[in-house]
Amino acid sequence: MAVKIRLARHGAKKRPYYRVVVADGRMPRDGRYIEQVGRYNPLTTPKTIELDLEKIDEWISKGAQPSTTVSHLIDIVRTGAPAPEKKQKLSKKAAAKAAAAAESAE
C-alpha cells in the first residue's frame, strides 16, 4: 500500500481551501483519507499554512511519500519564511490604460 501525504481540495467553486492529508495512493483526491495533518488556504493574504510537523515526520518515517506541493509547503513552514506571492498580471486593457497614462504624464 503506497501511502501519500497530499492535498485534498475543499471549498466552493473558485474558492479553494486545502486539507493536508495522509491517504492511500489508490484513493481519489478528495476521497477517504487516513489522517488530516494540516490545512492550507491560498486565498488569504498572507497565505495560511498550518501543518503538524510532528505527525508529518512520523508518517514520513513510516514510509509515506509527500507530494511535491506538500514538500514545498513543509519547507516553507520549517524555514519560517512567508509563502511567495505571485505577481498580479494586468489585463491587456489595464496595461494599455497604464501605458497611456504614463505617456500623457510625460
TrEMBL record:
Disordered, as annotated region: 82-106
Any one GO molecular function term: structural constituent of ribosome
Keyword Nucleotide-binding set for record: no
Keyword tags: Ribonucleoprotein, Ribosomal protein
Positions with biased composition (Low complexity): 96-106
Gene Ontology, cellular component aspect: cytoplasm; small ribosomal subunit
Keyword Glycoprotein: no
InterPro entries, A to Z: Ribosomal_bS16, Ribosomal_bS16_CS, Ribosomal_bS16_dom_sf
Matching PROSITE patterns: RIBOSOMAL_S16
Gene Ontology biological process terms, A to Z: translation
Pfam family, one: Ribosomal_S16
PANTHER family in the cross-refs: 30S RIBOSOMAL PROTEIN S16 (PTHR12919), SMALL RIBOSOMAL SUBUNIT PROTEIN BS16M (PTHR12919:SF20)
Similarity-based family: Belongs to the bacterial ribosomal protein bS16 family.
HAMAP family assigned to the protein according to its UniProt record, in alphabetical order: Ribosomal_bS16
Designated name of the protein: Small ribosomal subunit protein bS16
